[in-house]
Amino acid sequence: MANIKSQIKRNKQNEKRRLRNRVFAGQARTFVKKAKVAIEAGDAENALQAARLAISALDKAAEKGVIHKNNAARRKSRLMKRLAALEKQSA
């Protein structure tokens, strides 16, 4: 346990940030997973809606600094690639 006053404060701040960041990271993970499940199910309309929600969650996480913007871009790209393959297959 820290004895220095500034380090005690820093620990409190870090814990607050960690809890706040978990929300955005968890939402992004959840929406991406739901989108992948919808894509694998083969339902193009639901998959598109789920992908939009996932992209929004990833953008929000990147905006807040929870994940790096390139990390969000990579995940969105991979998701859209799967969605495009599904749409091509169903068409």
Poorly predicted ranges: none
* Global structural class: mainly alpha
The H-level CATH homologous superfamily, spelled out, is Ribosomal protein S20
The pLDDT mean sits at 95
Largest sheet: none
CATH architecture: Up-down Bundle
- Fraction in helix: over 70%
| Name of the top-level CATH class | Mainly Alpha
Strand content: under 5%
H/I helix tally: 3
Compute the number of structural domains.
1
End-to-end distance: 61 Å
Radius of gyration: 18 Å
Number of strands: 0
CATH topology grouping: Methane Monooxygenase Hydroxylase, Chain G, domain 1
- In one word, what is the shape? elongated
The string of secondary-structure elements, in order, is: HHH
Query: What would you call the quaternary organization?
Result: single chain
Features:
91 residues, mainly alpha, Methane Monooxygenase Hydroxylase, Chain G, domain 1, 0% strand
SSE layout and pairings?
Layout (H helix, E strand, L loop, with lengths): L4 H37 L2 H21 L4 H22 L1
Question: Can you tell me about this structure?
Answer:
This protein is elongated. Helix 1 (5-41) runs antiparallel to helix 2, helix 1 runs parallel beside helix 3 (69-90) and helix 2 (44-64) packs antiparallel against helix 3. It is mainly α and 91 residues long. The protein contains three helices and no strands. It has one domain: Methane Monooxygenase Hydroxylase, Chain G, domain 1 (Up-down Bundle), CATH 1.20.58. The protein is 88% helix and 0% strand.
